[in-house]
Design brief:
228 residues; eight-stranded mixed β-sheet; alpha/beta; globular; single chain
Length: 228
């Protein structure tokens, strides 16, 4: 059995990723901060629920302790929880966005490392964004060029850099970041664009099911590695 934890998995790309990984035989833990929504999503999927708020150290520690008690290890970790931060820019909002999109990755990764090291094929996938790519946001031919999301973009740049640095410091574990493609989710509803979360989840699933010799330290989309 392959044991997988997905943060922010009660809806959107996280939910669809959980669905697909269950189909290929993973034991999937749906991580969500809202108990009612998380339990419902897990029940709908046939997955397992664990309360996990990536902005709360105690919540993260408790979630990983619960998985350890039940499974003894963790094979795959998908960092999917995130916020858009498209309101007025200020210190409190910047702290909120970075706490979720970047610091949350540190909290969950550090808590998960002991369990990942017990896996024969440990894999971490960060759902990042090319909105955090200098190459993309300075390229007039890319949609990110005109995207007015300073906090989101900066926090996703941090998320990708954290992924690369973890890949360097943890050579026994694969760490890869992903641009999932423009997706129509609750978070992007105001833009009125994007494909279905199920389509974008396929790219997450590909990185979550890499073999032992798969790449690490990369930033990819569905077509392969991206400039960053």
């Amino acid at each position: 059995m392959t044991v997988t934890l997905i943060t922010g998995a009660n809806k959107g790309i996280g939910f669809e990723t959980a669905k697909r990984l269950l189909e290929v035989g993973h034991v999937v833990y749906v991580g969500a901060r809202d108990v009612e929504r998380g339990e419902k999503a897990a029940a709908d999927l046939g997955a397992r629920f664990v309360r996990l708020d990536v902005t709360d150290d105690e919540s993260v520690s408790s979630a990983l302790a619960a998985i350890e008690a039940d499974e003894g290890l963790l094979d795959v970790l998908v960092h999917n929880a995130g916020v858009l931060g498209d309101g007025p820019v200020g210190g409190p909002e910047a702290l909120r966005v970075f706490d979720t999109n970047a610091v949350g990755i540190v909290r969950v990764t550090e808590a998960a490392l002991p369990l990942l090291r017990r896996s024969a094929n440990p894999t971490v996938v960060t759902v990042s964004s090319s909105a955090g790519s200098f190459w993309a946001v300075t390229n007039p031919e890319r949609p990110e060029f005109g995207l007015p999301l300073a906090l989101y973009s900066a926090s996703k740049a941090a998320a990708t850099m954290l992924t690369v640095q973890y890949a360097k410091s943890q050579p026994g574990i694969k760490f890869n970041a992903l641009e999932p493609g423009t997706t129509a989710t609750d978070m992007t509803a105001a833009f009125g664009v994007g494909r279905s979360p199920a389509e974008s989840a396929e790219a997450v699933v590909r990185l979550a099911t890499l073999g032992v010799d798969g790449p690490t330290g990369t930033f990819q989309d569905e077509n392969g590695e991206l400039p960053w």
